[in-house]
Amino acid sequence: MRRLRAWWRSTRPADPEFVAALARRWAELPAIARTPAQVIGRHAVGCEGTHGVFPRCNLSCTPCYHSRDANRVRTDGAHTVGEVDAQMALLRRRRGPVAHAQLIGGEVTLLGPDDHAAALLTMRGHGREPMSMTHGDLDDDYLERLALGPDGRRRLRRISFAGHFDSLMTGRRGIPRPPDEASLHPYRRAFVERFERLRREHGVRFFVAHTMTVSPANLAEVAEVAHAAGRMGFGMLAFQPAAFVGDHRRWHEPYRAMTDDDVWAEIERGLGARLDHTFVQHGDLRCNRVVYGFWVGERWYPLADGDDPRDLAARDAFLEHFGPVNFIGSSAPVLLVKVLRVVLRHPRTVPIALGWSRRRVLAVGDGAERSSTLSGLRRVLRHGARPMSVVMHSFIDAADVAPAWEATQRGEVAADPSVRDIQERLAACHYTMAHPDDGSLVPACVQHSVLDPGENAELRRLLPITPVRR
């Protein structure tokens, strides 16, 4: 009976601690971000990231968001695991029991596989679902040693990686200076294939994302990357318009000569679909654009049509009834029971879900008639449906972050509208980093623009590449 009660408790749709964390996040958002489409504070607390854990990288990028001292810091496994533990513990206290978190710094594979695995397990121990951020220049042996451990037994049942590939990077094995984006397609494809092989041979499940920095130099190639990389098996395509952040010695272009809309239009052109980034909102739309969708065969379809009031009603019903349901870290059977309990309590969600499903099948069938429904079903049954989201993260220039953050720290709302706009974006930030020393949580743009230079200078003394005489 005790086990049954414990199981029933584990399947309750809304964990009170998670609900309380959502309420805190909603209260922290500026008024401009509290929209019907907002996900933060209603279904998620946002994404989290590590800092000061392994700032060094063995590739070079233009631009590079690391400070000039980052590559003068030794990668140290014990330091990484200890810092990850402290940062995740603070996030667990402040942001609740579950969240997505990135193991990020410099290049994650400069960590030994055992230290890397220890960091991931530490993050999971604090209720975080970790994603390792890499430039993708790795091999099968490293992945096997990461997932399987020294004894050859599987220690990680699922791994999540984001691989960064673009022609602005130099030093990649086999192609140290890519002439264009298309020349990197074999490396992008090989990255996905390594994880597919790991799953096939060792049963390790995976999620892989593709990230890319966009500047005026490669803007015209974004459509081709979206078109090709989207078909390679990535679960997410993420694009970051270049910003004046980090090492100023690597700022070689007029990045603001292009706009976010320019980048977004190229992504749409590559996928051959309209991407309505206002349908769901993650933080501030000036910072994040997110569209969910799926592949059926060679075509990608958005998960909803923002111009259809029925899809808008379905979104609102989902956030109202399923928003407090924690989807992270639950096994499939537990999650299924959670969903069933919500459905039993709110049966009107069933016809809403069925109507939404029918509209998606009609879209796949390319029409609005019964024959299109049958055609769509046949296509889904023949090809399957593979989820893939599209995101764009627009970082703020360092020169703009500093005065806005200083005003926020003083408790002031800036009189200058441009500074006030940056304050709003920082207050709505989807991406947070923790500072256990003073108990603070800071937006990623603040971390990279304001705090990283001093932090990495201190790390250079703490973890020098070569021994320092004292």
From TrEMBL:
GO terms for molecular function: catalytic activity; iron-sulfur cluster binding; metal ion binding. Gene3D superfamilies: Aldolase class I. SUPFAM superfamilies: Radical SAM enzymes. Keywords: Iron, Iron-sulfur, Metal-binding, S-adenosyl-L-methionine. The keyword Iron-sulfur applies. This is Radical SAM domain-containing protein. The lineage of its organism: Bacteria, Bacillati, Actinomycetota, Actinomycetes, Pseudonocardiales.
